[in-house]
Amino acid sequence: MAKAPAEQISAPITDPAALPARVAAMRAKILEAAGSGELERLRIPVEWNELPPIFERGLKKGPGFDPLAVLKTRSFDGEGREMLAILKAVLEEPCIRAKRGPFETFVWPALALAPPRDPDPQARIAALRCQRFADLGLSPPRIHMVRIGADAVWHSFMPEV
User: Fold this and answer.
1) Residues 6+ apart with CB under 8 A from 19
2) Following CA atoms 13, 14, 17, 21 in sequence, which dihedral angle do they give, to the nearest 10 degrees?
3) DSSP assignment string, 68-101
4) Using CA atoms, how far apart are residues 112 and 76, in angstroms rounded to an integer?
5) Which of 35, 117, 118, 140 has the maximum number of C-beta atoms within 10 A of its C-beta?
6) Roughly how many angstroms between the first and final C-alpha of the chain, as a whole number?
7) pLDDT tens digits, 46-102
């Protein structure tokens, strides 16, 4: 059985203008919805995809599946506002271009895949903003990440552990 190729990552991308136009547009639409504080506004970027992004591993997606209900369930407040705040914090951080074989994605926050060796207080605060309240103190930290493909498909928003 052949081994999957290792993920190759770029240096952090700090300027959103350096992103491909379609990736930048998807990021902007998600940020706009997350910044509104209204979970339902996230439905537009979710539905831009043929398939909804993955918000939690192992979910059965049958008839009537609502991906936004997953975010409500995962949110401390039960309404999705915690997850919107985390989503906004994640996308406000620098990102990394990750390649695995022929597949290329942009991953936010960069610190999840390339954590600083000796994080300063600002980096520690950034990492905390990208975690659920219920997950604080877990080791290793469960930092949420967003993956958007080079083709602008929003693949996921969840911690990768």
Assistant:
1) 13, 27, 95, 106
2) 40
3) HHHHHHHSTTSSSHHHHHHHHHHHHS-BEEEEET
4) 22
5) 35
6) 24
7) 998 888 899 988 777 767 789 999 999 999 999 999 999 999 999 999 999 999 989
Contact 83, 74 (CB under 8 A): yes
**Structural tokens at position 112:** 């999840």
> Which pair of tokens denotes residue 137?
């103190």
Q: What is the pTM of this model?
A: 0.90
User: In the structure encoding, which two tokens stand for residue 66, read together?
Assistant: 């609502």
CA–CA distance, 49 with 85 (Å, rounded to integer)? 22
Segment (H or E) for 26 = helix 21-36
SS3 66: coil
Q: 110: which 2 tokens?
A: 């960069």
Secondary structure E strands in 1-123:
8-9, 96-100, 103-108
Cα separation, 108 vs 96, in Å, equals 7
* Dihedral angle computed from the Cα positions of residues 85, 91, 95 and 99, in that order, rounded to the nearest 10 degrees: 100
Rounded Cα distance between 146 and 157, Å, is 4
